[in-house]
Amino acid sequence: MKKILLIVFCISVYSVNSQNIKIPADTSVVTTHTVTIKNQLISYKAIAGTQPVWNEKGEPIATLFYTYYERDKVDKKNRPLIFSFNGGPGSASAWMHIAYTGPKVLNIDPEGYPIQPYGVEDNPNSILDVADIVYIDPVNTGYSRMIADKDGKLPDRSTFFGINSDIKYLAGWMNTFVSRVNRWQSPKYIIGESYGGTRVMGLANELQSSQWMYLNGVIMVSPADYKLYNTNQPVYSALSLPYFTATAWYHKVLPPALQNQDLLDILPEVEDYAIQKLMPALAQGGFISDDEKQQVAKQVAYYSGLSETSVLQNNLNVPNSFFWKDLLRNKTGQTVGRLDSRYLGIDKTEAGDNPDFNPELTAWLHAFTPAINYYISEQLNFKTDIKYNMFGDVHPWDNRNDNTRDDLRKAMAQNPYLKVLIQSGYYDGACTYFGAKYTMHQVDPSGKMKDRFTFKGYRSGHMMYLRKEDLHTATDDIREFIISSSSKGNPAKY
């Protein structure tokens, strides 16, 4: 059910790209709705709008599109507020917005595959029953854009497109938003998917140290830690072995001794081998003995579903992209997906080291793109001719001076309330679940805060919530995390 309450447009309208298509820099559309969550009818308002980013002179240099959901008739003072980001970098917030935590969910099949007619339906698993949520599109994603000055010049791209600049301007924007909706008293959480994991690790410290906004929780969904991701460090490839095992198990290509066990019964063994044996072997590089190299290749083949020849030809350092191409090469000739290896693709040739395309991403865009455009326009009543960027132009992206892992440690050390939840899919080959565990282990080398971390794994991929069973479980895990990270009236002290 939806009722349009109010449409407010500010007088000033700014040009946001060279075609002179315009979007209001500061505007909101308010609608009212109901949804049944956990057998309880929830009434809420949705605000779809834009809010400026200002420079040090107080001039608008960008406008960010957001969607804010606020439950009616509840005590806002004690009600959690969650800021939600996706990743990329350069990805809009649509993914978690209309498939995970929001009050609407994609029209897809129970395993996450697109079906027609495209669109959305009520999400009985939304976390709106326990928290209000704002979905934020960083600059050049969604409807968010840079704003030209009076001379028609756009701001320097480095203001937005880099690990540290992204964190800085988003934290300032969040401060303004909290003031506008009067939520300074509320417990606050930030959730980030994929690159959003890097983003929220950095935001935790930036919000607390520069905006004096303290958090109760950080949630990382399939996080991409750039201390690991794309570093080309051979020892880190060992962290992919448990993912190889999970994917091979799913496609039923493991040796019977493994295949006949449940996935969760075999993964701890593989995780231990990856750290205790494979990582040290890779560290030896070309100076590993022939005997040890053969032994390791045999075991990696056993755990991965690949041939010993393939493992040896890659010098034990098997790239994930090769795995996606090779796992089923001599079986069905199909490739497996990068972000979700349950998905299958068909390449022009079976030869080669890399798949031609990502079958999971094409399937997801198939379902998400029409749905988010329809939903924002027709149900949230936000109208614009600006293109909704599922992926926007944010490159080159400055990855230098990445201190986000330590930023999270600092934020946790300085805030005894702050806890962390990490959620990963076992079949995610881009941001592997064991890589996420490794990041969790490395944030606090002292081990003094390890009881404030929680890891949850799911039998799906990068967007575990696209599988109906995991959507139910993962949202309940967030509910449990919110309850466990509530202050319960206790003081923030050690």
The overall number of domains is: 2
Q: Structural class of the secondary structure composition? A: alpha/beta
CATH topology of the largest domain: Rossmann fold
Rg over CA atoms = 23 Å
Q: Averaged pLDDT, please? A: 94
CATH class of the largest domain: Alpha Beta
Overall helicity = 25-40%
Task: Tell me about this structure.
The protein is an alpha/beta fold. It has 13 helices and 17 strands. It has helices spanning 94-97, 163-180, 195-210, 241-250, 256-259, 263-284, 290-304, 308-313, 320-326, 359-379, 404-414, 433-443, 468-484; strands at 2-9, 13-15, 22-24, 27-37, 40-54, 60-71, 81-85, 104-106, 120-122, 132-136, 145-146, 188-193, 217-221, 335-336, 344-345, 419-425, 453-458. Strands 1, 4, 5, 6, 7, 10, 11, 12, 13, 16 and 17 form an eleven-stranded mixed β-sheet that branches. Mean pLDDT is 94; it is low at 1-19.
Please sum up the structure shown:
The chain is of the alpha/beta class. 33% of the residues lie in helices and 20% in strands.
Features:
about 500 residues, alpha/beta, Rossmann fold, 2 domains, 11-stranded mixed beta sheet, two-stranded antiparallel ribbon, 13 helices, 17 strands, disordered N terminus, serine-type carboxypeptidase activity, Carboxypeptidase
